Amino acid sequence: MNVWQKFEQPFFILAPMEAVTDHVFRRVVNEAAAPDVFFSEFTNATGWVHAGEKAVAGRLTIHPDEKYPLIAQIWCSEPDDIEKLAIYCKNLGYQGIDLNMGCPAKTAVKNSGGSAMIRQPELAAKIIQSAKKAGLPVSVKTRLGYTNIQEWKGWLTHILQQDISALTIHLRTKKEMSKVPAHWELMPNIRKLRDEISPHTLLIGNGDVKDRAHGEALIKQTGIDGIMIGRGVFSNIFAFEEVPAAHSKQELIALLHFHLNLFEESNTKYQISDISVKPYQTLKRFFKIYIRDFPGSHDIRNLLMESSTIDEARVILDNNKI
After folding, report:
1. 185 and 215 share a domain?
2. CA atoms within 13 A on the CB side of 47
3. What's the rounded Cα separation, in Å, for the pair 144 and 118?
4. Is the whole-model pTM more than 0.90?
5. How far apart are CA 237 and CA 37, in angstroms?
6. Which of the residues 66, 107, 118, 210 has an alpha carbon 20 to 30 A from that of 243?
7. Do residues 112 and 85 touch, judged by C-beta distance below 8 A?
8. Is the domain of 161 the same as that of 292?
9. Is the pLDDT of residue 55 over 90?
10. Residue 8 DSSP one-character state
11. What is the DSSP string of 209-247?
12. Which domain holds residue 98?
């Protein structure tokens, strides 16, 4: 069964984020407050084809404890490479393939991937058809346009004509990056377009969504099927909880301990190979998620940022219990 057809509406997704949404962080979010769907970090199919596992450094790893719906997000400008990586992802156990056609990062655009696809609609169509050859449902995540928001109708019409299972729209252009508020005012018209062209395609909104309650309000306003939350989890790791609640310092520190434990385990017991080992420094981007909004949090966070091992971090946290 198509994984997208299993979800009750509205549904919520943890957005794919580079160097963030690996199997460790996905399990942390699932522990804190679970969304309905998780995405992998996005992976360059051409890099994988030419360099193998070394090119993806464990970013497609699925941990044995991950029992929730999981979608692999991949990208590149070579249809054959997309097909090969999509098949590989299916064999790993992913339940769907999402094509990144919206990333504004220079590296992706320079290699004709991400949001560069907006300027190559025929190639985008070939990429979609190649991904389908893996036999998994295919979805697309994109933006309103490349340079201006007026591009949305032509671009999204083209994508909806490709018979995809789901379409996620980050409601900004490539040029806008994240420098302006997301254009949620356009979503009702985008939904009407979807209803006319491909009513079976699930429509998902992304951009500036704080938490589930905020997402539910946007769904009521726009009539879309689902919401994707990305940076919102950095402000609130409990963003997906169904009933918002206050969370104590102890809860946040306990969750950080959980993150540390999973990270340590990932670098030993469940690593696929040596390339799956990530340096301790990569953990530091997460500290602000847990150590915030309580007395003394600034000083504790500074100490953690100066630490160099998991054991040092644990001592800092243990010395700052209430």
Report:
1. yes
2. 16
3. 9
4. yes
5. 16
6. 66
7. no
8. no
9. no
10. P
11. --SHHHHHHHHHHH--SEEEESTHHHH-TTTT-SS----
12. 3-235
